[in-house]
Amino acid sequence: MFAIRSSSLLCRRSAASTWRNKSQSAGKQLDISGIYPPIATPFTQSEDVDYQRFDDNLKMYANLPFRGLVVQGSNGEYPIRAGGGGAVERVEVVKRVKQALPQNKLLMAGSGCESTRATIQMSQQMADAGADCLLVVTPCFYRGRMDSRALINHYTKVADSSSVPVVLYSVPANTGLDLPVDAIIQLSQHPNIVGLKDSGGDITRIALIVQKTRSQDFQVLAGSAGFLMAAYAVGAVGGVCALANVLGQQVCDLAQLCVSRRWGEARELQYCLIEPNTAVTRQYGVPALKQAMEWFGYHGGVCRPPLQPLSKADLEQLQIKFSSNGWL
Q: What's the pLDDT tens digit per position in 134-177?
């Protein structure tokens, strides 16, 4: 009996090792270049996911030249889904996107949690729901202890356990910390970590990361349309841009101009995207993004409290940011 149990255990370990090696080999082959909107989640007045309007948005996004969609990122309001049935809801949203998404587009799912164990569990659930790769934000509640050693350990365990490739996610405006460059360089060598979304906007930092990781099959995505052209100029391969929820074609056009090295045209388009992008990100945030979506034929819906609707004054300023740049 002992021999049978030992043999069974060895078989399971061998199968797990083979599965992980295949996953990690596939990881470095995954091309994530291009533009992704981090899609918003429309809610009803009772704060439930409005799946009908959500599906309507997905149909419209399917007609745009996105590389894929980011689901359950910051603009999907995932942080305020942590309690109760929040985890179940996060996974269900990913399933709905997978059902609607054209086969030639990638589904990048946000699976970051505060603990390594919870992130591993959520990552596997997202993969099982159909995610092609995972966007894993830095844990930040204990940010004073989130040094390079802690974060390398965290991401290594997540990537080791994941059946799909992992994309690192640094968003200091929300987390209060930058994923350190030395940690990124070391993590770029992991066979199942394919890239980084950097939302900090520090172009010298992005350039340094590209330079220091270019010996690896490692890809950097700009985390905002506001510095998309600059990021492309120093070697980024795409962007996860909130503004693409609203001006998707224009953000894709900017990316194509950069790839084609038509820098003069790219610069003029970039100028027109800076103010609207700032308005729907760091200035007014998700409530502004959802309002702008309504103006452009998408369903934004209400935000979940504690997020509040825009004040009348903020709404007027948001409209000016779009209209003065020729979008309204």
A: 999 999 999 999 999 999 999 999 999 999 999 999 999 999 99
User: Which one is catalytic: 98, 105, 157, 197?
Assistant: 197
Distance, in Å, from the CA atom of 286 to the CA atom of 310, rounded to the nearest integer, reads 10
Q: Are 189 and 205 in contact (CB under 8 A)?
A: no
DSSP β-ladder status, 133-137 and 193-198: unpaired
Beta-bridge mates of residue 137: 169
Place of tokens 């609207």: 276
CB count in 10 Å sphere of residue 68: 23
Say which residue the tokens 């010298």 belong to.
Answer: 204
DSSP label of 32: -
HSE-CB for 9 with a 13 A CA cutoff: 6
Cβ proximity of 324 and 275 under 8 Å:
yes
Give the pair of three-digit tokens for residue 92.
Answer: 């269900």
Report the alpha-carbon distance of residue 18 to residue 209 in Å, rounded.
Answer: 31
- Coil/strand/helix, residue 167: strand
Q: How many CB atoms lie within 10 A of CB 56?
A: 15
Distance between CA atoms of residues 322 and 325, nearest Å: 5
CB within 8 A of 66, min separation 6: which ones?
A: 34, 35, 36, 37, 105, 244, 248, 252
Q: How far apart are CA 305 and CA 175, in angstroms?
A: 19
> How confident is the chain (328 residues) per 10-residue block, as mean pLDDT?
38 40 61 98 94 97 98 85 70 96 97 97 97 97 95 98 98 94 98 98 98 96 98 98 98 98 98 98 97 98 94 98 98
**Residue whose entry in the numeric block shows the structure tokens 């990316």:** 255
Contacts with 224 (C-beta within 8 Å, 6 or more apart), sequence order: 199, 201, 239, 241, 242, 243, 277, 281
User: Is 290 annotated in the active site?
Assistant: no
